[in-house]
Amino acid sequence: MTEMNENPLDLLPEVLLAASAVLGLLLGAWLPRRRQWLTGALAVTACGAGIGASAVAAAGPATTVFGGSFAVDPVTNTGRIVILGGTLLVLVLAVGPLHANRRECEFYVLLQLAALGALMLAGTQDLLLLAAGYLLASVPAYALAGFRKDGPGTEAALKYYVVGALLGVVMLGGITLLLAAGRGTSYPALRTALPQSSAGLVAAGVVALLAGVLFKAGGVPAHFWVPDAVQGSSAPVAAFLTTVPKIGALAAFYRLVAVPLADTSVPWPALVAVMSVASMTVGNLAAFFQRDVKRLLAYSTISQVGYLLLPVVVGGRTDIDQRALLYYLAAYALTNLGAFAVVCALPGARTIEDYRGLIRERPALTTALVVCLLGLVGTPPTAVFLGKLEAFSAAFDGGHAWLAVVAAVNTVASLFYYLRWIAAAVSGPAPTTPRAWSRTAGALACAIAAGSVVLGLLGGPVLGMLDGRPAP
Q1: Alpha helices, DSSP H only, in 288-427?
Q2: pLDDT class for 464, splitting at 50, 70, 90?
Q3: Which of 105, 140, 325, 332 is in Cβ range 3.0-4.6 Å of 113 for a Cys bridge?
Q4: pLDDT in tens, 222-233
C-alpha cells in the first residue's frame, strides 16, 4: 500500500502562493484603490518565500508526496525557482502600469493562480493532477490576456481560450485512453502497465495528451494562439504568457517521457523530434518580417520551444538531458523576460522603427536590449549560449545528431530578425521629442541582462546542481 505522506510542508511554495492569492483577493475587497498595491507586495513576498523554500527543498533527497502524485526532485525544485522568479519579475514590471487601477488586486491574484498551475505542472506525477494543473494554469491566463478589456485584448483572450479549450478536451481524451490502457493514472504504475497494453490505444492516448501539454508550451502545432495573444495583451502579461506557463509545461513534458512513456513501444522520440523541428522552423520563418516587437518576440518564443525540446527528445537516455533542459529553461526565462522588460520600459514603442536611435537617448537600455536579443540567439557569454550547447550535446549523446544540426541552422537563421531590431536601436538620430519610458522597467531590464551574463559565466557550478533523475 502506498504511503500517503500528506505533510503540507512538502508543498510549501505552492501553499504560500495559494494562500497569498486567497488572502490578496480578500484584502482587495476592503482596501481602497490607492492601497491595492499591498496585494502586490503580498504576492512578491509569497514568491520570495517560495523561492527560499524551494532552495531548502533542493538540498534534500528526491521523493514523492501525497500518495506519489507529486514529486519533489531536481525537476520540480528548479521549476519552482524559475517559475516563482519569473512571476516575481512580472509583478515588478506590472507595478507601474497597474498603480491605482480599479482592478489591480485582481491582476495580482490571477497572476499567482496561473503561476500556481505552472508549479503543479512541473511536479505532477499523476495524469489527473496534470489535468488540474493544466486548467489552473490556463483559466486565469485567459482572463489576464483580456485584462485591458479593449479590442485587441478581447481578441487575444478569445483566441487563447478557444484553442486552450479545444486542446484541453483533447488532452482529457488522451488521459482517458491512457487510463483505460494502464488501469491507473500514477506515472510509476503507468510505466509498468503501458508496455503490456495495446500499442494503438497507448499511441492515441500519448498523441492526445502531448497535444494539450504542447499548447501550454506554445509549440507547433498548438501555437496558433501565441502571436495574437501576445500582441493583444499588455507587455507584462505577454512576458508572463511566453515564459512562466512554458516552464511548467516543458517540465511536465520531460517527466512524461522520462517516466510513464519510457518503456512503451510508441515512437515518441520521433514524434517529439518532429515537433521540435516544426517549432523552431515555423517560429523563425514567421518572425523574419515582423515589424511589431511583441509579435516578433511571440514567434521567437515559438522557435525557442523547438530548441527546448531537444533534451526532451532524448529524455532518460543520456546523462545530461535533465540538466540541459533545466538550465536552458532558467536561461531562457531570464533572457526572454529581459527582452520584454525593455518593451515595458518603452510603452509607446510598438514597432522596430520606434526603437530607431535609442542608443543616443538610452544607452544603458539599448545595451540591455542587445544583450537579451543576442542572448536569445545563443551568443556567448550569455546563459542561453550554454543552455543551447548543453541541449545540442544531449541530442548528440542520445543519437539525434541530425536534430542538433537542424537546430544549429535555425539558430543562425534567427540572427536575421534579431539583428534587424538591434540595427534600428543602434543607428539613426535621436528622436526630436524624448520617448516616454518607465524607469523601473528600464532598471529591471538592465539588471536582468546582467543576470543573464552572470548565469552564463557561472554555468559550470549551476549545471552541477541540476544532476539527478526524476523521483521514482
Answers
A1: 293-308, 310-313, 321-345, 358-361, 363-377, 383-397, 401-426
A2: confident
A3: 140
A4: 999 999 999 999
403: its cell numbers: 536534430
CA dihedral 335, 272, 173, 212 (to 10 degrees): 10
User: Phi/psi of residue 269, each to 5°?
Assistant: -60, -40
Of 117, 233, 127, 109, nearest to 172 by C-alpha is: 127
In whole angstroms, what is the distance from residue 85 CA to residue 130 CA? Answer: 22
Dihedral sign for Cα atoms in the order 32, 36, 37, 42? positive
- Count CB-CB contacts under 10 A for residue 451: 17
Residue type, 212: G
Taking each helix axis as running N to C, give the angle between helix 321-345 and helix 74-98, from 0 to 180 degrees, rounded to the nearest 10. 0
Give Cα separations from 240 to 20, 111, 175, 230 (angstroms). 18, 8, 27, 10
pTM higher than 0.70: yes
Half-sphere exposure of 176 (CA within 13 A, CB side): 6
pLDDT at 4: 58
Domain ranges for the chain, please list them.
281-472
The per-residue pLDDT for 470 is: 60
Burial class from Cβ neighbours inside 10 Å (0-12, 13-18, 19+) for residue 35 reads: middle
Q: Give per-residue pLDDT as tens, 21-75.
A: 999 999 888 888 788 888 999 999 999 999 999 999 998 888 899 888 999 999 9
Q: Which residues face 292 on adjacent strands? A: 351
Nine-digit cell string for 425: 536601436
SS3 label, residue 126: strand
Peptide bond just before 140 cis, omega within 30 deg: no
- The end-to-end CA distance of the chain, in Å, is 16
For the chain, give the longest Cα–Cα distance.
74
370 in Cβ contact with 300 (< 8 Å)? no
pLDDT interval class at 460 (50, 70, 90): confident
- Name the pLDDT band for 1 (thresholds 50, 70, 90): very low
* H or E element at residue 64: strand 63-65
